[in-house]
Write a structure and sequence with these properties.
The protein has 78 residues and is an all-alpha fold. 91% of the residues lie in helices and 0% in strands. Helix 1 runs antiparallel to helix 2. The chain starts with a helix and ends with a helix.
């Protein structure tokens, strides 16, 4: 039981590390998406479109990373 609890605690620490990192990435992503929207608003749609796609790709990465970390944490539960 003690080894399982230790394994769970390690998995929980890894999960917390990933979510903390992803929160910071998500803040930057909102800045990128906002920049894309502003560029589209100011009639620079070609450049704004690229920023929006980049923001969308980063958003999918963050979401997928969080979901994978959550599933790994569930597997480690005692």
């Amino acid at each position: 039981m003690k080894a399982e609890k230790k394994e769970y605690n390690v998995a929980r620490q890894e999960y917390m590390e990933i979510t903390r990192r992803n929160r910071n990435i998500a803040k930057i992503d909102m800045l990128i998406l906002g920049t894309g929207l502003l560029l589209k608003y100011f009639d620079m749609a070609e450049i704004g479109k690229h920023f929006m796609w980049l923001g969308f790709i980063i958003l999918v990465y963050v979401f997928g990373s969080n979901m994978m970390a959550k599933s790994e944490l569930r597997k480690a539960q005692p």
